[in-house]
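Memo to structure team: turn this sequence into structure tokens by end of day. - J.P.
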Amino acid sequence: MTHPFHLDRVVAGVLGDVSPGESRKCLPLAAAALAALAAAACSGPPDAGKPTLTWYINPDPAPPPGLEGPFGQPGIAARCSTAGYTIRTAQLPTSASEQRIQLARRLAAGDDSIDLVSLDPVFTAEFADAGFLAPIPPERQRSFADGVLAGAIEGAMWEGELAVVPMWANTQVLWYRKSFAERVGLDMERPVTWDMIIDVAASHGGKVGVQANKYEGYVVWINALIKGAGGEIVSDVEAGDDATVNLASDAGAEAARIVRKLATSPAAEADLSVSNEGTVLGPFAQAGGFQVNWSFVYTHYPENSVVRDDIGWARYPRTAAGQPSRPPIGGINIGIGAATRHPGEALEAVACITSLENQVRFAIETGQMPALEAAYDAPGLTNRFPADLLALYRESIEEAGARPATPYWATIVNAILSRWHPPRSVDPGKTPEQSERFVRSVLRGDALT
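Reply from structure team:
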């Protein structure tokens, strides 16, 4: 199976704009050029004395006021450095897509300065399939997987093996203003559907915040809608570029209907077509209503503020009234670079980074939830977050609807976005079928996104 990254990312990054045919002819030259660049960048004297492990991290949120000492992932690096090795961090770009490109280009070139990586679960399959990650010994796979919530484990597996180790998990819940729900008479103790919250917000001056910019976050919403209707965007992912595309299904049509309904409703925020996790925070604070968003929302609004005191939370909305929702899941997993010169030390570092103690402390500092189930009963965490919110996080992670575990996910995302964006253009009678045909064409190499 030809891996998509090697052709349309690595080659383009080294050779610039070339035709698909030229890119295949130039692939050996591109690989050699990248390897030479990596060797030049990493050249230096041989290992002497105490090794340093470089851990490439995604950005952490801003530290809370008054926090002393190292914060977030750099803090974990400091605590996990030992007499045998030092861990230093190098920060990746903010965008998950840019993180993917930067890491994959360097790992494809065999860069041995990348010892550890913080990796979004959606890239696990791609990186593992391409051989960018060092394998985890079977006995360590079992110990690393012990006690991890099911949804978090699902995003760490590839071909039946644990390819990376969950450090923290994330999920989306339905955040709502308690005063708004009370005013409109909506019982949030019962499961709610997308139709319910759109209708209520539209008729009472509220808003429903979602992520619908032309980026992967919009496909997270589409995937959750399809999963919630009992469908899958793609199945048979082990077939690679021959995977079965299922967008032209009843579940796909139901997802398209809901996207279209919100996009054409007074409940839609004015910037819907460019909305993201951050843009929905302001309208939620001002107009009231609802937003679907990740766990950081609870700590975003200041304590004892009007908004914080008025925030309620409930499970992700149902696509169909009779079926449980499948909340989105994200987070960060820790992988070991395939070319690391210190595989033994890196494996021990992963064990420390993902330990119960560090997962709890990281959650207290950042609001990013643990992947280990036992962490949800830790006193530090239960003192920081309401018990029912922690229970909701744990349930949502356990019963989450993961994005398809395919090395072609980035390609599929771009193909879907080209047919489902902007949201107002979505037609339940046409868009699912058109997008299914296009995704199939892209996977076969007959079309480009």
